Amino acid sequence: MSSDNEKRCQFPDGVTIRPDGVNELDPCFYEEIETVKHCTVHVLRCQRCGHIEIEWERESASEPDEEEG
Fold first, then answer.
1. Beta bridge partners of residue 39, listed in sequence order
2. pLDDT tens digits for 5-16?
């Protein structure tokens, strides 16, 4: 997660890219930093504005894999 002092990536002012004609392209370039196995993912959408949040929780019986560094 980024701190409050950091701004998210942005396209230049006035530039919007919608590859499918509807959804705006995210200008961030992501790299995978962790894979969590044996968990439940919750995708939440605000009923008022439509903002999406993603939460997850580890399943109670799972332990981190020893083979992962």
1. 58
2. 567 788 999 999
